[in-house]
Amino acid sequence: MKTALAVTIFTLAVLGGAGCAPQLSDRMAQVETAVTGIDKVEAEAFLARVRKAPDHLFTLLDAVGAEMAVDPQLLARVDKSKPLPSTYAPWDLVDLDGKGLSVSKTGLKLRKAAFDAFCAMSAAAKAQGVTLTVSSAYRSYAYQKALFSRNVAEMGEKEASRVSARPGSSQHQLGMAMDFGSITDAFADTKASKWLVSNASTFGFSLSYPKGMEPMTGYVWESWHYRYIGKSAAALQAEYFGGTQHYLMLFLDAFSQARPSK
């Protein structure tokens, strides 16, 4: 219910509610409030870009809002500060087995939207001589709980929390995130990684934990971890948030709680 309400409010915030279109000044006020949660320098750069062509931002936000109305979990914020409930599980998981895709093990699953987008991305990469091998996809709350506990036993809680998510805090529980290749830093130097850096956003995928962003995201660099956010959100991220998914999610989460002035 809370997610559905948030999406409804987000749609109202973008579209202005039934029968009334908010003034540009009202929409800008919403944006200025929502952006306060991200890095100050990034926020100032963001607002400078918006003020040059505000209509373009709102066109993208309209598209994102429409997609969220159809799929409330598409852009759900999931991080250390905002975990999913233990009971959450995707309703439309698709097996990757037997689909002609490259996987490192059997039993991997993705939500339908992410699966369709990945199939298209995989085919495009293959046409250019690049193989995208999926090593991890959907993980249940119970799976993540066991994984985190194992990491704590091996390296201690402080280090484990830098390299893995506590149960409920993993994007994998959404069924929208994938790990590629070796799941090590060595992946960054592979053809697959370099292809993803250049092309993933075209298919609606975004790198979740960039290099040098641990103070913001709470996690070390993961060159192999991508989340499907949809093409509209990927364009919004690229144009206004320096390609940083974390800033995009903070902004959308704050914006979803805003309403246009009456």
3D structure, described in words:
The protein is an alpha+beta fold. It folds into two domains: 2-74; 93-228, 2-Layer Sandwich (Muramoyl-pentapeptide Carboxypeptidase, domain 2), CATH 3.30.1380. 48% of the residues lie in helices and 11% in strands. It has helices at residues 2-15, 24-34, 40-52, 54-70, 112-127, 141-155, 157-163, 191-199, 214-217, 231-240, 245-255; strands spanning 93-95, 102-103, 109-111, 133-136, 177-180, 205-209, 222-228. The strands form two sheets. A five-stranded mixed sheet has the order 2-4-5-7-6. Helix 2 (24-34) crosses helix 11 (245-255), helix 3 packs across helix 4 and helix 6 (141-155) packs across helix 7 (157-163). It is globular, with a radius of gyration of 19 Å.
Structural key phrases:
disordered N terminus, 2 domains, globular, Muramoyl-pentapeptide Carboxypeptidase, domain 2, two-stranded antiparallel ribbon, alpha+beta, 262 residues, 11 helices
Fraction of residues in helix: 40-55%
Our count of domains comes out at 2
Instruction: Kindly report the CATH topology of the largest domain.
Output: Muramoyl-pentapeptide Carboxypeptidase, domain 2
Give the termini distance in whole angstroms: 25 Å
What string, H for helix and E for strand, traces the elements in order? HHHHEEEHEHHEHEHEHH
Q: Structural class per helix/strand content? A: alpha+beta
**What is the overall number of helices?**
11
Strand segment count: 7
Strand content: 5-15%
CATH C-level name of the largest domain: Alpha Beta
| Largest sheet, strands/sense/barrel | 5 strands, mixed
**What is the strand arrangement across the widest sheet?**
2-4-5-7-6
Shape category = globular
Mean pLDDT: 91
Radius of gyration: 19 Å
Query: Judging by the overall fold, what is the CATH architecture of the largest domain?
Result: 2-Layer Sandwich
